[in-house]
Design goal:
Oligomer: single chain
Helix content: 25-40%
Largest sheet: 9 strands, mixed
Strand content: 25-35%
Number of helices: 15
Distance between the termini: 23 Å
RNA sequence: CGGGGAGUAGCUCAGCCCGGUAGAGCACUACGUUCGGGACGUAGGGGUCGCAGGUUCAAAUCCUGUCUCCCCGACCA
């Protein structure tokens, strides 16, 4: 392809609204242009990269026995009502209405549509296990789209759905997808790790997230250097701790202090001149018909999923303000653990273990208490791990401190069990002729996010450094002087030879000066560069250099294609 | 949804306080000089200053409303 015809609109300056490096570089390097908030046109360079990633996905999934199909984007509302997700998915679901006033969703994920297909078409255990996948645009009306394609409202995703006759078979299929994902991310040149994760709204029990390690990632991962435990922050657990006060701790008397209008930990902390760690945050939750008080250190957050598992309920919800007033006798913002009514179960998070002289709400409007001691002023019914884990918490497996790193979630795989098959009446007939619900799994992989993550991990201050396997082109030929007949002729010959050698080649045929061509070449980051200049052509050589290691070698023009093929072909299949 | 910021040329921005014929750099067109790491000169094209009202002899500038975009935060007591 000739640059002059390729629609590669590079920019000298950073776009004003792009914050993370992948977004900046995608716009500057002419890969991406916005159409609306969180909605983008993928320009030719980006599309080529997308097709490469898609091809890698197809090869790996086909190899493990999954089959590709293409369901609709437009989903009839009835299917989403069958699983209850028409309401549960909330505003994240894009909805449209047709001329007959029938409701549709623009697919954010395809459990319903695929399960509907399979329940109609698959009758017998003889047809199982079956795994289907698609690569298609997904729609999610995100609260806050940001970071370019990392969190867009319209994005490309590979999603797969597996149907197995029993749990053992399903776990086996799950492991195959797990391995295929590793192969895919390896081939895309990503440094990643699979971590235990929270299922969230999708449901099911066992699930893993694939995190590409990057400081700008939106997700936090907690991992243990000692035993290898790793989990997403929403999921990560921490080991139990004993409530043992430090030696020499002198308990103070419980005192009530006025804190008019100060309802948050930060406000009261500022007023009293104490750190947030010295606070007890007392949160009231409704679990089924019971009200539960959960105590957590002032600077920590409750993990509602953990709380739900502890209480063995499907969902916990914060108590309403009316309920808080009724239980504590005070306005919201002044709840404390020490004078709660008898019927309230009190759960203390391990983050409070070993802490004394605490500040808490007084259960009186506009008042807090200081000098609170757990064990003296309040006896929790239970100590538990119900807070969001943070850096330094003890590892649940070995007790060593967990370390927090950031990552980009590029894939998430789930063992769903029978949640959707039961909800939608999707069954097959087993050997005895009895209907049995399918054991399902689902497997997401963000195609555009993989590319953003690859750029986050592979760039320098001048631009992108594409891994060969997903680069839009493999070779860029740069004639430095378009007015020199000899240079142009040599460059054209090399361009032809590279194409004949099946190297994906871009020829920078623009009449620009050398400096700006070099700068653009660095920016768009094609892995191999062939520089054709007057000086070299006179001596019968051109320069070949990789984007990653800038040191060029001189090569005779008629040997360039072979020289490059030897280097590029081995790198195509996997990371460079 | 709450809080902050911004809408002026394709892009990055100045001008606004203090009202008086709309600017710079980059990009684009032409010509000339230049030509191995984002050249220079000359000439040129391009903007109803987000939109709608209002004040005024006069509004990018002051006032009101509205829309859009960006950032931070979202049942965390």
């Amino acid at each position: 392809m000739r640059w002059s015809r390729a629609l590669i609109p590079t920019l000298k300056e950073d776009p004003a609204d792009a914050e993370v490096v992948s977004h900046r570089l995608m716009v500057r390097a002419g890969l991406l242009r916005p159409a609306a908030r969180g909605v983008y046109t993928y320009l030719p360079l980006l599309l080529r990269s997308i097709l490469k990633v898609s091809q890698i996905i197809r090869e790996e999934l086909d190899r493990m026995g999954a089959v590709e199909l293409l369901p609709p984007i437009l989903h009839p509302a009835e299917l989403w009502k069958e699983t209850g997700r028409w309401d549960l998915y909330g505003p994240l679901l894009m909805r449209v209405t047709d001329r007959h006033e029938r409701g549709y969703a623009l697919g954010p994920t395809h459990e319903e549509i695929v399960t509907d297909l399979i329940r109609r078409e698959v009758r017998s255990y003889r047809q199982l296990p079956l795994s289907v996948y698609q690569i298609q645009t997904k729609f999610r009306d995100e609260i806050r789209p940001r970071f370019g394609v990392m969190r867009a409202r319209e994005f490309l995703m590979k999603d797969a759905y597996s149907f197995d006759p029993d749990e053992v078979s399903m776990a086996n299929t799950y492991q195959k997808f797990h391995d295929a994902y590793c192969a895919i991310f390896d081939r895309c040149g990503l440094a990643y790790r699979a971590v235990e994760a929270e299922a969230g709204e999708i449901g099911g029990t066992v699930n893993h997230e694939f995190m590409v390690l990057a400081g700008t990632g939106e997700s936090a991962v907690l991992s243990c250097g000692a035993c290898g435990y790793a989990a997403a922050s929403e999921r990560a657990e921490s080991a139990p701790r004993e409530h043992q006060l430090p030696d020499g701790h002198q308990p103070k008397p419980l005192e009530v202090v006025d804190t008019p209008g100060q309802t948050t930990v930060d406000e009261v902390a500022q007023l009293l001149g104490k750190p947030a760690e010295a606070f007890v945050k007392t949160l009231l939750f409704e679990a089924d018909d019971n009200t539960v008080a959960v105590l957590v250190r002032g600077d920590r957050e409750i993990n509602e999923a953990k709380l739900g598992r502890l209480l063995a309920v499907e969902r916990v919800e914060m108590a309403t303000p009316e309920r808080v007033v009724k239980v504590t006798g005070a306005e919201v913002g002044f709840a404390g653990p020490h004078t709660l009514p008898d019927g309230i179960r009190i759960i203390a998070d391990y983050s409070l273990a070993g802490r004394g002289d605490l500040v808490a709400g007084a259960n009186q409007t506009d008042r807090h208490v200081t000098g609170l001691e757990i064990g003296r002023d309040v006896e929790p019914h239970e100590w538990a791990d119900v807070s969001v884990a943070i850096d330094g918490d003890p590892c649940p497996q070995c007790g060593q401190p967990l370390k927090e790193t950031r990552g980009i979630e590029v894939g998430h795989i789930f063992q769903l069990g029978t949640k959707y098959s039961v909800a939608m009446g999707a069954t097959f007939l087993d050997e005895s002729g009895s209907p049995v619900p399918f054991e399902m799994g689902c497997y997401g992989l963000g195609v555009t996010r993989v590319i953003a993550a690859a750029i986050e991990q592979n760039h320098d201050d001048r631009g992108i450094i594409w891994p060969v396997a997903i680069a839009p082109y493999e070779v860029e030929v740069i004639p430095l002087n378009m007015d020199s007949e000899a240079v142009v002729k040599t460059a054209e010959q090399i361009y032809e030879a590279c194409q004949a050698a099946h190297l994906e080649t871009l020829l920078d045929d623009r009449p620009d000066r050398a400096g700006s061509k070099f700068a653009d070449a660095d920016l768009i980051g094609i892995p191999w560069r062939v520089v054709v200049g007057d000086r070299g052509v006179e001596e019968g050589v051109v320069e070949v250099a990789s984007r990653r290691e800038a040191e060029p070698v001189t090569v005779a023009p008629n040997e360039v294609a072979n020289h490059l093929r030897e280097r590029i072909e081995p790198a195509r299949h996997g990371s460079d």
